[in-house]
Design goal:
The chain is an alpha+beta fold and 401 residues long. It has helices spanning 9-14, 29-48, 50-55, 62-66, 148-160, 188-211, 232-243, 246-249, 252-260, 264-294, 317-328, 330-336, 343-350, 361-374; strands at 81-90, 95-101, 114-124, 128-135, 165-173, 179-186, 297-298, 304-305. It folds into three domains: 6-210, Lambda Exonuclease, Chain A, CATH 3.90.320; 220-295, no CATH class; 314-342, no CATH class. Strands 2-1-3-4-5-6 form a six-stranded mixed sheet, with helices on both faces. A two-stranded antiparallel ribbon has the order 7-8. The longest helix has 31 residues, at 264-294. The structure holds iron/sulfur cluster (SF4).
């Protein structure tokens, strides 16, 4: 039987059918490895110290971990915080217990009426528990107040440590070293409501598992669903995409014209199905890469598709500039060598520097970035990107196309 852990509750709340299917890790192994390396690094900073924890990071992920400003993160204070704490909630009884620490997500003695999960970092304050969860991926996530995983940890920790409320935070760690924390408070009423919702969800899931053959709800949550490799709804979508020929599918313009005649709710549904199809296609890509790594896949014209080693030469900008300047003058050197930087790279370089007179890092960063701007060292260009946004905070960019 598939074990339902806290990290799967959010998808389960949107599609109960996922509980019926087998689960597997899927997607780019590289991203999973990166996420694991970051979690292990952060979990060991508290117990081993920053330098030793960084030494143990695999070479490939060293720069990603080094770029994280651990001074902002709670794992650095072992006196007040514990990391990798596993809990189980008995959803029938509403009780909770601590399973242990550093269990590497292995929940061997969990009961059928329990849902287990491992909290990245937990802190115990006088009147509340504080829950932090690191997220190193790119997927869109529910707000911490609506996040089943964090609500699970908050409820369990509050019960185990005898507290009435909880602060819950998601710490996003981006590949360029930036981090962002979203913190919310769950009151005792919020925690009590969660216990009822969890009981309801698990009861519905068991009923659905027993009685309904279908019940698949495709949507963007599918990208976080561990059942994607086994889901008939997603594989059906991908198969349809793969077999429809151009004539049946119509041109992009014809499809856009048809979609624009649909009511907004149908367009929202189409968006969800597109996300689900993308999840399926990501799985197809990951599977093909595994197969091609074992044996390259034949392509037209006698070619094959598979992993290849490619070498990219990086030329030192300073040396290249001097050589070109000496031989061809400033114009050619300027044309060939561009020295560019980014806010993230500048802040990374500034972070370890000592600061005087109690100056905060934010103040130093503002000062340096401001000086660069004042000297004409900043140019900005606007690009159009598609993402979810709040229309009350920024105007819609509407085109006539
Ligand atoms: S992939 Fe989507 S539709 Fe399929 S089981 Fe998971 S959540 Fe449901």
């Amino acid at each position: 039987m598939t074990i339902l852990s806290a990290s799967k509750l959010d998808v389960l709340s949107r599609c109960g059918a996922m509980a019926r299917l087998e689960h597997a890790e899927w997607g780019e192994p590289r991203y999973r490895e990166r996420g694991r390396a970051i979690h292990e690094f952060l979990a060991s900073v508290g117990s081993l110290g920053y330098d030793r924890a960084l030494e143990l990071v695999p070479k490939e992920w060293f720069e990603d971990c080094r770029a994280i400003d651990v001074s902002k993160l709670p794992a650095c204070d072992p006196e007040s915080y514990a990391s990798e704490v596993a809990f189980a909630i008995d959803w029938q009884e509403g009780t909770a217990r601590e399973l242990g620490r550093g269990l590497a997500r292995r929940y061997d003695d969990v009961l059928l009426t329990e849902v287990a999960g491992t909290c990245d970092v937990i802190g115990i304050a006088a009147d509340r528990v504080v829950i932090f969860d690191y997220k190193s991926g790119f997927a869109e996530l529910p707000d911490p107040r609506e996040n089943w995983q964090l609500r699970h940890y908050a409820y369990a920790a509050a019960r185990v440590f005898g507290k009435d409320c909880a602060d819950v935070a998601i710490i996003r760690l981006w590949p360029d070293g930036r981090s962002a924390t979203t913190l919310r408070t769950l009151t005792s009423e919020d925690l009590a409501a969660f216990a009822l919702e969890l009981r309801e969800l698990m009861r519905e899931t068991l009923l659905l598992k027993a009685n309904e053959p279908g019940g698949y709800v495709v949507g963007q949550h599918c990208r976080r669903c561990p059942a994607v490799p086994f889901c008939p709804a997603v594989t059906g979508l991908v198969r349809n995409l793969a077999v429809l020929d151009e004539a049946k599918r119509g041109s992009p313009e014809e499809m856009a014209a048809q979609l624009s005649e649909l009511p907004a709710s149908a367009q929202t549904e189409a968006y969800g199905r597109w996300q689900a199809a993308k999840a399926g296609l990501e799985l197809v890509e990951a599977t093909l890469k595994i197969l091609a790594a074992r044996s390259p896949i034949p392509m037209e014209g006698g070619k094959v598709w598979g992993p290849v080693l490619s070498t990219t030469s990086r030329y030192d900008g300073g040396v290249a500039f001097r050589v070109l300047q000496e031989r061809f003058g400033n114009e050619v050197a300027d044309e060939a060598v561009k020295i560019v930087s980014s806010q993230a790279a500048i802040e990374r370089a500034l972070k370890p520097l000592p600061r005087g007179d109690g100056q905060s890092f934010a103040a130093l960063s503002r000062e340096v970035l401001g000086e660069i701007e004042a000297r004409g060292g900043v140019s900005r260009e606007q690009t159009e990107a598609f993402r979810k946004y709040d229309p009350s905070k920024r105007p819609a960019l509407v085109s006539e196309r």
